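> forwarded from #structure-qc
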């Protein structure tokens, strides 16, 4: 009986196989277990079955071994492409401004290179200065820095900022001063700018610093603007469309490079 036990043990060991794989007959890799490939119609243990089993910047070759380099873009980091002839990862050419370039850059789809936008995007400007931002650009009120009364000009504002009407209410009687208006509102002779008659209106104002906004064609969408900017209407009473962004946040986080 002892020889029967030994024979069964040897058969069991043969079925479990060795470190080299199960050795089972196969036609496809799917006929084999985990970590095995079908080589010469036998299941053998291999280093990799696909590049996903290898480290970054490596690929799985025909012999199921991990090799340095790349064979497809999947073997490289995001934003890189595989130069198949050289077998090396390199920075990918840009295809879309908003996806492939850094903040404040455009994509030149002809060359595949990103380049820094010019034209005063988010630069500070003086609201009352003519052509403060250059041809085709507009200086618009952006950062509120305190309350003021437009009837006093800019006297209520700190240097570098100007008094700008932000909310327009009902008409008021100038002989009553500001008493016809809610608290914090002022009564002045104003042109509402919407075709209505010039009259005395209640209004609320803030001191604003200006930012240069570059005009854009809304039909082109955000691709008309640098990365990080959107093309759209900034003010409800101004149909013009500009490339806009949170300029203050971009400045504070170093994305504008001091522009």
């Amino acid at each position: 009986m002892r020889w029967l036990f030994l024979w069964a043990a040897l058969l069991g060991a043969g079925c479990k196989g060795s470190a080299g794989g199960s050795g089972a007959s196969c036609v496809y890799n799917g006929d084999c277990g985990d970590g095995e490939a079908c080589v010469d119609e036998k299941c053998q243990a291999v280093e990799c079955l696909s590049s996903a089993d290898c480290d970054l910047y490596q690929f799985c070759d025909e012999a199921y071994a991990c090799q340095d380099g790349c064979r497809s873009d999947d073997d490289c980091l995001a934003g890189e492409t595989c130069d198949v002839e050289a077998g090396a990862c390199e920075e990918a050419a840009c295809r879309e401004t908003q996806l492939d370039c850094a903040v404040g850059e455009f994509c030149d789809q002809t060359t595949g290179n990103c380049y820094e936008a010019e034209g005063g995007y988010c630069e500070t400007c003086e609201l009352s200065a003519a052509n403060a931002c250059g041809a085709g650009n507009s200086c618009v009120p952006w950062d509120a820095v305190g309350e003021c009364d437009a009837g006093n000009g800019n006297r209520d504002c700190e240097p570098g900022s100007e008094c700008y009407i932000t909310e327009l209410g009902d008409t008021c009687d100038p002989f009553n001063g500001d008493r016809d208006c809610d608290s914090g509102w002022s009564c002045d002779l104003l042109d509402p700018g919407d075709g209505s008659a010039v009259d005395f209106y209640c209004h609320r104002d803030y001191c604003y610093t200006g930012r240069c906004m570059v005009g854009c064609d809304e039909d082109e969408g955000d691709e008309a603007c640098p990365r990080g900017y959107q093309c759209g209407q900034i003010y409800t009473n101004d149909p013009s469309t500009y490339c806009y962004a949170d300029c203050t946040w971009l400045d504070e986080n170093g994305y504008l490079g001091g522009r």
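QC bot note: The first helix runs from residue 2 to 16. The CA atoms of residues 49 and 64 lie 6 Å apart.
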